[in-house]
Amino acid sequence: MPRIAHKVLIPVLLFVLSGALVGGCGAGPAGTPIPTDLPPTSVPPTEAQPTAAIIIQSDATAAAPSTSVESPQPTSLNPAGPYIYFRGEDRIWISNPDGTFLKLIAQNVDDRNDLSTALSPDGKALLVITKEGDEINLMEYSLPEGYATKIDHLLTYTEADAMKSAGDKTIAYHALQDYPTVAWQPGTGRYIAYAAVRDYVTTDLHVYDRVTGEITQLTFGNSHTIRPTWSPDGQYILHYGVNWTQPFGGALAQYNDFHGAFATRLADGETVAQPNTERVNFLGWLNDQEYITFNADLDVTDGCSAGVFKAVNPANRETRLLTDECFLGVVAYSPDMGTILVSNSSECSCSPGEGLFLLSPPAYQSKFILEGYYYEMSWEPENQGFWPYPGPVVSVDGAEIYNPPPARDAFEASISKLGYEAWKIYQDQEATVVVKVPGGDWETIMTEKADTLIWDPISGDTLLITSTDGRLYRATAPEFVLEQVGEFGKSVKESGWIFP
């Protein structure tokens, strides 16, 4: 999970475990592949000139940055990577691992979802939804060159459409903008699964073949397709059908009409309706043949409204329990290790108790980690751990716990491969950055305007910090002297690693 600047307290996979189960969808087998009438076009990237490094005083009394000390800067990106990406409100940049040679890759970005799932399996391309004028398109950008190829036109959304707050196109735009709707096929990344609007004013599932350039539509009307994800063997696309129905209230929020879960086979376009569920319940892929779900099953839990973890085979709909324990709370899954972290508040007879629990394969028997209840849970690959918010970072095996600094508003954590810690905390409504080496004390290195935090992916001793006024800083252990190395011109919302 990339470094997100502003945490939105929407529980991840927190289920309201009551209500009727709703099924059905307008999914159907694919017909003749639909050739695109929008041939790929290559567009040269826009260069962003690197900014000379500027040393900043690190004490709390520091005033304006001093420009008297400069260090030489690289004149290009490392050809083989790795890189760090930075996503602003409408732009994407990449840099070398130490933050040097900041390069603008994409503009007019209209995708609010994190970019970690938009990177190709080989790390050499990035998928982005853009909006230029009335046109919303799916674009592919080569890395690190930044050449753009238009994959498909997703929707035309005019100012007149936007004035209709509950209109069909506004709902379609909302589905494209606020939910994951793009996924790379694992392995070679030959196929791209994505949602686009055709004749039904719904975001239907499509597949793009990067070798032939052909586009095939796989679902047709009735509901909006969201959250496509490929099976690890690249044979099935799991996706969900949702809609929005009146009353909406003041604004469109989360979908309120769930049509079900579906799996579409790439070979022939056949779509299989998955076992009934009340909402999106996908946690991750267990193996090539099974994915993990988390939702209520009153028959299993003796009427108690807690959730259970199941493995589901998308081809034949067969399910099995991963554990006979039940939980009520938020969860996160590590695709690297297959482990699950869950914050439990259930008092059901099948519950292991209250607190934070780690479940590891193959038995998935719960292991108690910490007391307390946490409101949000995420797996963060750059940290190689889970982050239950508000709380510590927990390593994937539960052996290491990185507690936040003794401050009331510890808000964001970044852990390096060397075990160095960086936390963003709030003091007097200003975002401050504190760091600590193993066995050391907390040290304040930035006293205001901190935004995202990420450690370099190579040595793990250089911390990169973006600021709310659009600057990029770095601080290297053990001195952690703050140094400006680039400038975005606007704030950054997300950063992450790219390994070609």
Sequence-ordered SSE layout with sheet pairings:
Layout: E1 3-4, E2 34-35, E3 42-43, E4 54-56, E5 83-88, E6 91-95, E7 103-107, E8 125-132, E9 135-142, E10 148-156, H1 159-162, H2 168-178, E11 182-184, E12 191-197, E13 203-209, E14 214-217, E15 224-230, E16 236-243, E17 257-265, E18 271-273, E19 282-285, E20 291-296, E21 307-312, E22 319-321, E23 331-333, E24 340-344, E25 355-359, E26 366-370, E27 376-380, E28 385-389, E29 393-395, E30 401-402, E31 410-415, E32 421-427, E33 430-436, E34 443-446, E35 450-455, E36 462-467, E37 471-476, E38 482-487, E39 492-498
Defining traits:
39 strands; globular; Lipocalin; Neuraminidase; 500 residues; 5-stranded antiparallel β-sheet; mainly beta; 3 domains; 2 helices
